[in-house]
Design brief:
This protein is 46% helix and 20% strand. The protein is built from six helices and eight strands, in the order H-E-E-E-H-E-H-E-H-E-H-E-E-H. A hairpin with a 6-residue loop joins strand 2 and strand 3. The chain is elongated. It holds the Pfam family Redoxin.
């Protein structure tokens, strides 16, 4: 028994190393993405909300934004990854993709300045100063993007920055499918 006690730290280390390398292999092969936290909202309606628009303070609710397929993008001026993502969102909007945004836990003046300087790809930006809408959505950080169908049902959630690779892999086929499904109805 005394010898077993001597080897116990080595055994524990070997078990932990095996777990670590197993997870690392799954990450490298794409079987496991550590940032993919499941969203309780997928295939459920957007929560009801009433938030001020960043640009003019008018109150916007869910009925104002649904009716066609759109992206709901969560961003903030304090988010470094959002700076990387923003030019791609401007490009998507120029291609006709409807994007609604949430300026999350931010300073309103900083948000307005950001959009004036970098371009405004959004049909409307909701100002979620206290993070209550983000909490209802299950936001874990910025940026996050939700794909919402014409009826206001969340169909997909992506955590992290959108770029062309992510768009092609995760969004393009889903949007095409939703648009075809909407045209048939």
């Amino acid at each position: 028994m005394q010898r077993f006690k001597l080897f116990l730290p080595l055994i524990i280390f070997a078990i932990l190393a095996a777990i670590f390398f197993g997870v690392e292999r799954r990450v490298l092969t794409g079987d496991y993405v550590p940032t993919d936290l499941p969203s309780a909202l997928v295939n459920k309606p957007l929560p009801e909300f009433s938030e001020p628009a960043l640009d003019d303070g008018r109150i916007v609710n869910k009925s104002h934004i649904i009716g066609e397929v759109f992206l709901l993008n969560v961003w903030a001026t304090w988010c470094p990854t959002c700076h990387y993502e923003h030019p791609f969102l401007v490009k998507l909007a120029a291609q006709g993709v409807k994007i609604v945004s949430i300026d999350y836990k931010d300073d309103a003046e900083a948000g307005r300045r950001w959009l004036a300087e970098k371009g405004d790809p959004y049909t409307v930006t909701l100002f979620d100063e206290d993070g209550s809408l983000g909490l209802d959505l299950g936001v874990t950080g910025a940026p996050e993007t939700y794909l919402v169908d014409a009826e206001g049902i969340v169909r997909f959630r992506y955590q992290g920055a959108l770029d062309q690779t992510v768009w092609d892999r995760e969004f393009a086929h889903r949007i095409a499918e939703l648009n075809v499904r909407g045209a048939v109805q």
